[in-house]
């Protein structure tokens, strides 16, 4: 059976965490969190009857610890880890595929206000599509409109097109067919 997650040592290197140098990290509160990140990524073992969420719980815990020490880019790197599955997609997207959209939304909400503008726009788009999948169309519309406004300034045309397509789907779900056609 293939491991769902990549090797812990490779992920620690990618995040810039070296377990042999942990004692040099200052202040102590940061060192404690970095040690916890290392432990979650390298020592966490899910139960034998683990759900998909249980299998990636170490990554999710490490994500929140990275956010707690303001390592936003590393947190993004962690949730963009490709999983060894037939879908061959990233952790944050797998949460949706597995039916854990609430957890997916929490990841995006944690990041949104702490990243550069393009990422802000993209995470709003991701959050909007998560709300859409949950049937929360008004929240989805709000996130997607905000995302589009940001991506008009800092995104490329492909990003903008994706958001417009998502907005069309939301308007369609709300029964506003004229607006849906306008965005499609």
Coarse morphology: elongated
Helix content: 55-70%
| Straight-line N-to-C gap | 43 Å
Low-pLDDT segments: none
- Tell me the radius of gyration: 18 Å
Secondary-structure element series:
HHHHHHHHHHH
Total beta strands: 0
Overall mean pLDDT stands at 94
- The total count of helices amounts to 11
SS-based class: mainly alpha
Strand content: under 5%
**Biggest pleated-sheet summary:** none
Number of domains: 2
Oligomeric state? single chain
Report on the structure:
By secondary structure, this protein is mainly α. It folds into 2 domains: 1-98, no CATH class; 116-184, Serine Threonine Protein Phosphatase 5, Tetratricopeptide repeat. The protein has helices at residues 8-15, 28-42, 52-55, 57-68, 72-79, 91-97, 101-111, 117-133, 137-154, 157-173, 177-183. Helix 6 packs antiparallel against helix 7 and helix 8 runs antiparallel to helix 9 (137-154). The longest helix has 18 residues, at 137-154.
Task: List the keywords.
184 residues, Serine Threonine Protein Phosphatase 5, Tetratricopeptide repeat, 67% helix, elongated
Helices and strands in order:
Blueprint: H1 8-15, H2 28-42, H3 52-55, H4 57-68, H5 72-79, H6 91-97, H7 101-111, H8 117-133, H9 137-154, H10 157-173, H11 177-183
Helix pairs in contact: 2-4, 4-5, 6-7, 7-8, 8-9, 8-10, 9-10, 10-11
Short description:
The chain has helices spanning about 10-15, 30-40, 50-55, 55-70, 70-80, 90-95, 100-110, 115-135, 135-155, 155-175, 175-184. By secondary structure, the chain is mostly helical. The protein folds into 2 domains: about 1-100, no CATH class; about 115-184, Tetratricopeptide repeat domain (Serine Threonine Protein Phosphatase 5, Tetratricopeptide repeat), CATH 1.25.40.10.
